[in-house]
Fold:
Amino acid sequence: MKWWQKTIVYELYPKSFKDTKGQGTGTIRGIIEKLDYLASLGVGAVWMTPVCRSPMVDNGYDIADYCSVDPSYGTMDDMKELIDEAKKRNIRIVIDLVFNHSSDQNEWFLESKKSKDNPKSDWYIWRDAKEDGSAPTNWRGIFGGSAWTWCEERGQYYLHTFASAQPDLNWANPEVRKALYDAANFWVDLGAGGFRIDAITYVKKPDVFVDGTPDGDDGMVSVHDMTANQPGILDYLHEFKREVSEGHDIFTVAEANGVKADELKYWVGKDGAFDMLFEFSHINLEFKGIETWCRPDPWKISDLKKALRDSQNATKDNGWYPAFFENHDKPRCVNHYFDENADKKMAAKAMGTLLMTLRGTPFLYQGQELGLENVAWPSIDCYNDISSFGQYEFALSEGFTAEQALACVHEFSRDSARTPMQWDDTPNAGFTCGTPWLPVHEDYREVNVMKQEQDETSVLSWFRTLAKLRAEYPVLAEGSYEEILADHEQIIAYIRKNEEDELCVLINLSNETAAYDPSLCEGKEVILNNAETYEKGSLAPLQCVILR
Ligand code: NOJ
Structure:
């Protein structure tokens, strides 16, 4: 097995992790300061969301220079020190590659937009207006509004899958691909331990651009439905593998939704372009198609079980599964998967246990180890997240009231996952001595690292126990996965097994007591339990146990 299959990855949101300058946003030196904390969680890799120079329209996912560090985070020397200091603690730094689009302030784009015949004129996706001067197609960008923006200087529209400040790069141009691979190799040479590759689904554009059937009252159709996972995309991705990742002891995990099961082997594994794929069916349970916050579908525990079953099966013999229940784009898992009545501490431990015991590499997201919860701010103006604004406007345009639109933002806003890390109970939770760029969650005096470190029943202590368990029982990384109680409507249960060992994980994902066949427990000892009692054949609401 490779090192990254046995480790725990921590996803870190640098802007909200630790500020050492009193500027209200996190710094690389802040991360260096907290490396021992990360090591205490058994983490072997830290994926940082982008820290390259950026106007921060989308908090770093709009890159102005791929081989740089944004001055707000520090310097390239800080970055080198981070990589070195992390290595001393057996932690590798994983870089986020944002290759579908750049910032509109990237020099490549500034050049490209000047004229139709400059040396970089073909580095982005330019099209003429329709005869009436309107956008070339009726595609809606993922953050809302048209996916096309008019550029006066050049007299053409450019395509942006996300915000207009994030123009899509033209991967059909080999010079563009080479420039991107060179940038990735810059980070390999600097000592990166791997890459998370952003929005890779969109890099190959369709051969012809046509209007789609509108899916909303705005007359537009989601750009995703018109451009995702186009035939031929794999040629590019395999080229990326040959030019960048192959031959290095690093891992790659690509954000790619909607890859068809019969194509998966070309995406991941021995013959695939990447080591792992982030797939979203278990986290987008309420969005069968595109993510429209004002129209969530109801879902049941059995849907979550099915999504996990499908991805465990898909990676059984090929590729490797990156387990995650939170990231910087999703609400906090204790709010997302459970209703207001659930005991959030039990829920955080149950989800943590699921994360750390599925077959695959666990990706633990900043603050999840404290059981952090969503924020629900009183007005849309309190929010910062560009997608929250788009979703809010879209809800209004679909006839929802302002109050209803805000309720959707409360439920799904990405800002809930981005509030500053809660280190202690001092002002601003010890994150900054300045004014935080995003308000700290109001519960920080009760919920913080300092307090949870002193409490052996805390969520943080639970995560540390889980990390120790993974070290103590290699079967959790190496063993096979076999689901049991597949039809149970409350419990998710599975056996992790190798030649030496066998563990049985039982998690009650519901808020009611759940019964199961007690013979499952015969001859087994309990090695982990988040409740005070243990009764064979019955789990309390949100109780999880591991039997050996
Ligand atoms: C996916 C990233 O996770 C998200 O934060 C970002 O806004 C989009 N890609 C665009 O880069």
Q: What stands out?
A: The radius of gyration is 23 Å. Residues 137 and 211 are 5 Å apart (CA to CA). The domain at 478-547 is CATH 2.60.40.1180 (Immunoglobulin-like). The longest strand covers residues 491-497.
